[in-house]
Design a protein that fits this description.
The protein has 13 helices and 26 strands. By secondary structure, the protein is an alpha+beta fold. It folds into 3 domains: about 180 residues; about 200 residues, Aminopeptidase (3-Layer(aba) Sandwich); about 200 residues, Sandwich (Immunoglobulin-like). The strands form 5 sheets. Strands 11, 14, 17, 18, 20, 21, 23 and 26 form an 8-stranded mixed sheet that branches. An 8-stranded mixed sheet has the order 16-15-19-13-12-22-25-24, with no helix packed on it. A hairpin with a 2-residue loop joins strand 3 and strand 4. Helix 4 runs antiparallel to helix 5.
């Protein structure tokens, strides 16, 4: 009896661990909310409170009571598990402490990282050092969580559930850090700390689409020299001699969309992935101008408008005030205002590049801007390509590389490419429906339905519509669907007639291509039935693991999507990804504005 009483007394300190852990977690959540609203003092208060709770939990788990309980045959495993949970919590609080310390240099209007056309390399070194420190804590937290068994009687399930919740937060950050860590050494070189670096800024015009995004119609050279930024004179393709004449440049190996012979610079970015399109552009630029650059920053007007939402509008001489609300329409949606000479509109595209530099680098708020850029990259409105492999790997880890997904199962990307030099793609509306029927052998039958509307305003100019060029309302386009390599097409129709398009291959993808010239207000519909032989992995016990990756195109009006996945008879999924709905053996997802690349995984168990 006395032994039971002693054990009960010894357990009292352990009972407070749960309360401390929950309080620390609540503090961390509140701190993040405060940082997102720009309230640094409140964030610091919550992080300080979280540290107190984490220290208290650590003290309890390292005390005599925990030592006694850990020596017991059954309770010992649970105590060890809780110790690992508390250790992971301690590391999470350390990451938050580093975050609030870094906040003044990278967030808010007074951020010190970049001022007066110069990046503070000392601040950058301090930043990368702190990021490494935070990364170490993330790795330690992930290791602690990996050591949790979660098998103890009574409390094991609860511990395992808490472990899984924490792991869902920690592991992605730890994995991202592991991918980014090699890039940290290369960051100073990116900004010219080891010698001058030059990059080509390309302004993308989504009124004239390429598979990679908007057409590259305006450019500016960007130079970084020992942390000092210099943006050269903006150049517009139409107004710059030598940039609109046919030239030849060396093909990037494996680029199906590099056509032999002379071509114009605006067609250098036909490939859907910027690892290819960016290198093609740099080679074409060097052929046209004799100048070699170290990389490309491709940014479209949709991204720029979002940055204006953070930094505020600007006044451009001759064009008035440009804001988040009117930027896209002013830059790429008002060509009729410049009839018969569109050079005024093109000059505006070039004039806005210096403002894009100011919006991106000046005025602080770098955390908010980074979120805008990440969201824009997810929607393929922005991409960065570097010839330096280390930098490119780092930007790939950040999701800023602008590549289409490499299929690890199933894949879909529906893109259009402008073929008549029109500027009507700003009005394009697109809907995509995909119905996937999985089979027990891992193959999948697909029913695809793509509808493209050329939803333009009326043609009002005092001459016949030329069906090409800046002012036409006709949409010349190549409607192209990218699917996994080896897909087998059984049937396809276009505008209700048998399909007479082209099947090709690009890297790890097949694609189905159909060219069409759409009259104003008309619709094109493409329907296809095809099979992907290895869409899902099949385990020894017959379970299916199906992965679907989908990329959007960087359109002004996001496409709508409807996806349906049908499991084989007798199968049920063990988990439904966020945003999906399950109805028996059928899963569905829909969005009226699909503007971010997505990858989903489904595990279907046989006989469940």
């Amino acid at each position: 009896m006395l032994g039971i009483v002693v054990l009960a007394l010894l357990a009292l300190p352990l009972l407070s661990v749960k309360g401390d852990a929950e309080a620390a977690k609540a503090d961390l959540t509140a701190a993040l909310d405060a940082l997102e609203s720009g309230d640094l003092p409140t964030a610091r208060e919550h992080v300080t409170s979280a540290r107190g709770h984490a220290d208290s939990a650590n003290e309890d788990m390292s005390g005599a009571s925990a030592g006694v309980w850990s020596s017991l045959p059954v309770a010992g495993t649970a105590v060890d598990d809780v110790r690992h949970l508390v250790s992971a919590l301690d590391d999470a609080v350390s990451v938050a402490e580093i975050g609030v310390d870094l906040y003044p240099s990278v967030a808010g209007k007074r951020a010190t990282l970049f001022r007066d056309e110069r990046l503070d390399l000392a601040s950058l070194a301090a930043l990368t050092g702190k990021v490494r420190e935070a990364g170490g804590h993330l790795e330690d937290a992930a290791e602690s969580l990996d050591q949790i068994a979660g098998t103890s009687p009574v409390v094991g399930d609860t511990i395992a559930a808490n472990r899984d919740l924490a792991d869902a937060e920690v592991s992605p950050m730890a994995e991202t850090y592991a991918e980014l860590e090699p890039m940290l050494d290369d960051l100073p070189a990116l900004f010219g700390a080891e010698g001058k670096r030059t990059y080509l800024v390309a302004m993308l015009n989504p009124a004239e689409l390429r598979y990679s995004g908007g057409a590259t119609l305006a450019f500016a050279p960007m130079t970084w020299d020992n942390g000092t930024l210099k943006l050269g004179e903006s150049l517009d393709l139409g107004a710059t001699p030598g940039l609109s004449v046919p030239i030849e440049w060396p093909k990037v190996r494996g680029n199906t969309f590099h056509y032999p012979g002379p071509n114009i610079l605006r067609n250098a970015t036909l490939a859907p992935s910027w690892a290819v399109a960016g290198e093609e552009l740099l080679r074409a630029w060097q052929s046209a101008t004799g100048r070699r650059y170290d990389g490309v920053l491709a940014i479209d007007v949709v991204t720029l408008s979002r940055l204006f939402g953070i930094a505020g509008g600007v006044t451009v001489p001759g064009y008035g005030e440009l804001t988040e609300a009117n930027l896209v329409q002013t830059l790429v949606g008002s060509y009729d205002d410049y009839y018969p000479d569109p050079s005024g509109q093109d000059a505006l595209n070039a004039a806005i590049i210096p403002s894009s530099k100011d919006q991106l680098f000046d005025g602080g708020d770098y955390v908010a801007k980074a979120k805008v850029l990440a969201g824009a990259a997810d929607g393929r409105h922005l991409a960065a390509y570097f010839r330096d492999d280390g930098l490119q790997e780092g930007f790939t880890a950040l999701g800023l590389e602008g590549d289409i997904a490499e299929p690890t199962g199933d894949y879909l990307g529906v893109f259009t490419q402008n073929t008549n030099g029109s500027k009507v793609d700003i009005h394009q509306r697109r809907s995509v429906s995909l119905d996937v029927a999985l089979a027990t052998d891992g193959s999948a039958d697909h029913q695809l339905d793509v509808v493209v509307d050329n939803d333009t305003p009326p043609y009002i100019l005092p001459v016949p519509d030329p069906r090409e060029g800046y002012f036409t309302k006709w949409a010349g386009l190549a409607l192209t669907t990218f699917v996994p390599d080896g897909a087998e097409v059984s049937q396809a129709t276009f505008r209700g007639r048998p399909w007479n398009g082209y099947v090709g291959n690009y890297r790890d993808h097949d694609f189905l291509l159909q060219k069409v010239l759409l009259e104003p207000g008309s619709t094109a519909q493409f329907e296809a039935s095809y099979t992907v032989p290895s869409a899902a992995e099949v385990s020894d016990d017959g379970d299916l693991t199906y992965r679907l990756a989908v990329d959007p195109q960087g359109t002004v009006i996001p496409q709508s999507v409807q996806f349906t996945i049908r499991l084989p008879r007798g199968y049920r999924t063990t988990a439904v990804p966020e945003g999906w709905a399950a109805d028996g053996a059928s899963l569905s997802f829909s969005s009226d504005a699909f503007d971010a690349s997505q990858e989903w995984e489904f595990v279907a168990e046989a006989g469940s």
